[in-house]
Amino acid sequence: AAINGVPVEAHLGRSVREVLPDLADRVEPVFHAVLHRGEVCRDVEISGRTPADPDAERTWVSDYYPVVEDGRPRAIGMIVREITELRRSERARRQGDERLRLTLERAPVAVYTCDLDLRYTWEAGAEAQAPFAHAIGRFDHELLPAQQAAELIALKRKALIDGQPVRGELTLPAASGASRTWELAIEPARDGSGAVAGLLMAGLEITERKRAEEQKLLLLGELNHRVKNTLTAVRSMVMRTLAGPEEHEPLRETLVGRLQALARTHDLLAASGWQGAPLTALIEGELAPYRAPGSDRVDADGPAVTLASGTVSILALAVHELTANAARHGALSVPGGRVSLRWQVEPAAGGRGEVLHITWREAGGPPVRESASSGFGRQLIERGVTYEIGGRSETRLDPAGFCWEAWLPVERCLRPEG
Description:
Blueprint: H1 8-11, H2 16-19, H3 24-37, E1 41-48, E2 58-69, E3 72-82, H4 84-106, E4 109-114, E5 120-124, H5 140-143, H6 146-162, E6 166-172, E7 180-190, E8 196-205, H7 207-241, H8 249-271, E9 277-278, H9 279-287, E10 298-301, E11 306-307, H10 309-328, E12 338-347, E13 354-363, H11 376-388, E14 392-398, E15 401-409, H12 410-413
C-alpha cells in the first residue's frame, strides 16, 4: 500500500489488474507461474506507474515464492525493493559515458583504463590511435614492439608504485619508415576507499608537432650558423679596413669588442633556442678576463634571473661598454681598482609592478672624467634601456668612482618562469 498508494482495504478481493492496471501485464504471468507451477521467481524487475504517483515511472525488483498448504500453492509471498533511483543513476551514468565517448571520438585524444595487472579494460576515442586501437583485454607487450612496450610499462608501474601522475612520450616506428609520437598522461585510478585500483591513461598523438619542432630546430641551427659567419665576416672587414696606422687602433679595438660582445650574445641565445639567457652568464662572459682566482677586483652578485630574448643583446652591449670603459679609463685600468655589480628585483616606484635594479659601481680608479660618461657607448646604453626595454638609467660621476644604475620593468626584461 505504501508503494502503490492504494489503501490496504482496497486490495482485498480485487485482482492485480483492478488495483494496478499499469503493471498487470508484467505481474500476472509471474503470479501464474508461482500459483500454478509452484515456481520461485527471483529478481523480477518491473517498471510502471502507480496511483501513488501516476506521472512518474518507477521501478521495483521483487522475489516471488509460493505459500504452500496441503501440498499446493495457496498464496504468493513477495519481497519488493524499489530501485527507481538506482536505475535513474545508471541511466544518467550511461548517458554520461555516451557523451564522453562521442566527445572523445571527435577529439584527437584517446583515453584508456587498465587494471592492476596493466590489462586494458576500457577505451574511448582510440579508433584512430593505432596501435592502441582495440586494446580492451590486451596488454602492452601484445600491442607494441618490445622496447616501446617496456618503456610504457615502466611509466605505468611508476604511477602505480608512487601513487602519483606521470607524463611521458612514446615514439613508435611505422611501417612506412616514419615514426609516430604520442604524449601520454598516466595517473592512478582509485576506488571508493581511496586505494589504487588501476590506471587512467590519456594519449595524444603529437607526431606533426614533433616534426614541426624538429624543422624549427633545423632552421634555427642554419640561422645560427649564418649569423655567426656574418659576424665573423664583419669582424674581418673591420680589422682589414682599419689595419695600418696606429691611430686606428682604439677605433679598431672598440668596434671589434662590440662585435665580439654581439657574438657572445648570439651564442647564449642560440644555446637556449632563442628563449633568453641567464643574466649571470652574460655578465661572466664580459667580466671573466678581470676575475682572476683570489682577486676581488670584480664583485658581481644577484639572484638567478633569466633575461627575455629581446633584452639579452641590449644588456650585453651595456655591460660590455661599462667594462670597456672601466678597462680604458676607470677602475679596471689600474691595479687597485675595483668594480661592484649588483642586481635585484624590487617593487617599482609607485608600487606598479616590479623592476630589475642593476647597479655598476667603480672604486679605486683614476679621477673620474666627463668623457667616462659620454660618447657613443653611453648612447647605446641609454637608447637600449629607454626605448627598447622601457626602463630608465642614471649615470653619476661620484668622487669615489663612476656609477651607473638602471631600473628595468620585469614584465619586459625577464623571461616569465615556466
